[in-house]
Design brief:
The chain is mostly helical and about 130 residues long. About 85% of the residues lie in helices and about 0% in strands. Helix 2 (about 20-45) packs antiparallel against helix 3 (about 45-65), helix 2 packs antiparallel against helix 5 (about 105-125) and helix 3 (about 45-65) runs antiparallel to helix 4. The protein is globular and about 50 Å long. The termini are far apart.
Length: about 130
């Protein structure tokens, strides 16, 4: 019988039961963690972690982009789409140039956007 990690079980339940707003917050959290790990991996020449971290961050940003509803989101969705495109370019350049300093502004911007989403999430939860 296959052993299941309790933490993995918790994450699966949290993911399956999360609201769309909470899923966006979770995606931002995971992207931020991945970029911090990518920065560490570049500095320490840890190529395996670097590859995993960049792949995960790029995949998450792509999912965030795909989740945009430009009909409902209007100008905000367009601006987020432009930001996600910028993040993707910067991640690719940081990876190619092995420059972890390029990741810091992205982490800062993602953290700010995540905080905004969290405020919306809290307001929706309290209404």
């Amino acid at each position: 019988m296959k052993q299941t990690n309790p933490y993995d079980q918790y994450l699966n339940i949290a993911f399956d039961t999360a609201s769309p707003e909470r899923l966006v917050i979770m995606a931002y959290d995971a992207t931020i963690r991945s970029l911090k790990e990518a920065s560490r991996a570049i500095r320490e020449n840890d190529y395996a972690s670097r590859t995993r971290s960049f792949d995960l961050a790029l995949g998450l940003i792509n999912e965030l982009r795909k989740s945009l509803n430009k009909n409902k989101g209007g100008e905000i969705a367009d601006k987020l789409d432009n930001l996600y495109q910028y993040f993707t370019r910067e991640l690719l350049l940081a990876n190619v140039s092995s420059d972890p300093d390029r990741l810091e502004p992205i982490v800062t911007m993602l953290t700010d956007i995540r905080q905004s989403w969290f405020k919306v999430y809290k307001e929706l939860a309290n209404s």
